[in-house]
Amino acid sequence: MARDYYGILGVGRNASDQEIKRAYRKLARELHPDVNPDQEAQERFREVSTAYEVLTDAEKRRIVDMGGDPMESAGAGGGFSGAGFGGLGDVFEAFFGGMNGGGGGARKPRGRVQPGADSLLRTRLSLAECAVGVTKHLTVDTAVLCDLCQGAGTNGKSKPVRCETCGGAGEVQTVQRSFLGQVMTSRPCPTCRGAGETIPDPCRKCGGDGRVRSRREIAAPIPAGVAGGMRVRLAAQGEIGPGGGPAGDLYVEIVEQPHDTFVRDGDDLHCTIRVPMVDAALGTTVVIDTILDGPTELSIPAGTQPGEVSVLRAHGMPKLRSSSRGDLVAHLDIVVPSKLDGKQADLLRKYQSTRGNEHTEVLSAQSEHNSGLFARLRASFSGR
């Protein structure tokens, strides 16, 4: 014989959803096991919870109105299923009046469709590629939309159904006693993982996830002026989200390869030029094969001292998203010959005899002469 679910809640057969809800709240306050530990009250609470589940489901209520029992037809047997202990959102609302602000007690389920995760890919660039910019064609292993179910996660024309564990809430609640009183905690439903629905007949290709792993080619435009460690963001080129959700972003991290001649410091380029002693004394011109400007002459003035620097303004790296550029800084290394033949030694002695009182000196590290190297280095970097 079909159970009288209307009678269990004490409402008429024409009761509205709101009237059924109010009746359930009233009975839940009286019969909940945390309020009334009596065994008979607990059994009565299970009956009330089952009746509420049946009468708030349109299809189950239709079966009741036709004289049937949806819980028996669903294989529930002669007893009550204990529904209402899986999702306590309405019980919580019955006690606390919907404290979450929406009047519905529990939060809404997050749904199956979720945004995709961001991805990270590293690519190596030469110094020249960093200077001029380049489009890199990369292969990425990522999550893409399932072409069989188009993200739905279902097999054929089947559809998701409400999760039986949480009743579609996406979370389950437990009430615990503590020295502060009754404490209610919520956690994502372990069956639907917070989606509020399950897929009884999942897609045979993606298993219900709505996406599959695949390798695909992308073209990554890298702007001029990037440096090692920088990341270029490619919007919506990351992983497709669960359920066919919007794709995340793809970040391409730059790994800058060392250059044979230049060392980069921010937007400036540094190199070392070995200058023979005679050229340093008489002055000379050297040609540097720069990154962006090709062969460029650098004048080394007569009397150049060891450790001095010579700067080519605006011959360094381009500044990112700017028309200006850094400098090229040439560090001058004066090369003194380590071996001389007799004729060369005689020439130097004759030169020495013309220099008057010049002789070797021992100076303090704080002397103006000896600190000139550091002063010149500071001046070269500050532009003075």
UniProtKB/TrEMBL annotation:
Pfam families: DnaJ, DnaJ_C, DnaJ_CXXCXGXG
Gene Ontology CC annotation, any one: cytoplasm
Zinc finger (CR-type): 133-215
Keywords: Chaperone, Cytoplasm, DNA replication, Metal-binding, Repeat, Stress response, Zinc, Zinc-finger
PROSITE patterns given in the database record: DNAJ_2, ZF_CR
Gene3D superfamilies: DnaJ domain (1.10.287.110), Heat shock protein DnaJ, cysteine-rich domain (2.10.230.10), Urease metallochaperone UreE, N-terminal domain (2.60.260.20)
Positions annotated to bind Zn(2+) 1: 146, 149, 203, 206
Binding residues annotated for Zn(2+) 2, in chain numbering: 163, 166, 189, 192
Cross-referenced SUPFAM superfamilies: Chaperone J-domain, DnaJ/Hsp40 cysteine-rich domain, HSP40/DnaJ peptide-binding domain
NCBIfam families for this protein: PRK10767.1, PRK14278.1
Subunit structure: Homodimer.
Entry's family note: Belongs to the DnaJ family.
Protein name as it appears in the record: Chaperone protein DnaJ
Organism listed in the record: Nocardia vermiculata
